Amino acid sequence: MNKGINISNLSIGYQKKTLIEAINVDSNLCQFISIIGRNGEGKSTLIKTLTSLIEPIKGDISVAGKLLFKLSEAEKSKLISVVLTNKISIHNINVFDFVAYGRYPYTNWLGIKTNNDKTIISEAISLCNINHLTTKLYTELSDGERQKVNIARAIAQDTPIIVLDEPTAHLDLVNKIEVFKLLKLLVEKHQKTIIISTHQIELALQLSNTVWLINQQKVISATPNELIKNGEIDKLFANTDVIFNPATNSFTVK
Ligand SMILES: Nc1ncnc2c1ncn2[C@@H]1O[C@H](COP(=O)(O)OP(=O)(O)OP(=O)(O)O)[C@@H](O)[C@H]1O
């Protein structure tokens, strides 16, 4: 066992339906990790298990030597922050206050924020380039704006690991690339470990350090180059009208 993320003999799924059995993956921290796979393969289920939104059927995950499922909620909230895809219907709250929610693991029950909390909130806002949005209502944001605000809230939570379920869903190409570059910056300049699920395979191959590829109930962890060279990316779309071109790292239609 190293001191990164160690997933051992993990089975995930819902009640009586096991989706994937015996996942064994070891990855280092301070990496950009993308989970890829076709629709319904279990990417979101793995994300939800990693973030304790659902319980594992079997197995363990350890992070930096600590068994995740044994940690208290308070300990987990200082280790992993989560950005999900579903719209949060939270009314009458502006962007600054929404990002400030990220400080909840560190404030008392009155939610009183210190100057240090306020600095961290402002830094998260600047990092995500959303200073112009701070007084806007959260419910009045566009999808692209909201996603950056959600990421700022996770940054304000100040955890070494940030997990995001399809962070670029509903975004145009420019915003998709902006979000990927922001996540990459968090890894390279702020020593975060970023784990995302994504259908943006080309971007994931270009920008991730590690890919967890799910195909036919198996999870493989490798670098993008390894997955391209050993044909695993090709296999993902076997018997479909999609072809992967390893020379350009892009997909074309047959
Ligand atoms: N709450 C649930 N209860 C039972 N089954 C579920 C539940 N949520 C998802 N599933 C099923 O689990 C399987 C995997 O779903 P999941 O959302 O994890 O896949 P995914 O890879 O993220 O898919 P997509 O790319 O379409 O978002 C699907 O067959 C789905 O119908």
From TrEMBL:
Gene3D superfamilies: P-loop containing nucleotide triphosphate hydrolases. This is ABC transporter ATP-binding protein. Keywords: ATP-binding, Nucleotide-binding, Transport. It comes from Vicingus serpentipes. It holds the Pfam family ABC_tran. InterPro entries: AAA+_ATPase, ABC_transporter-like_ATP-bd, Metal_Ion_Import_ABC, P-loop_NTPase. GO terms for molecular function: ATP binding; ATP hydrolysis activity. PROSITE patterns: ABC_TRANSPORTER_2 (PS50893).
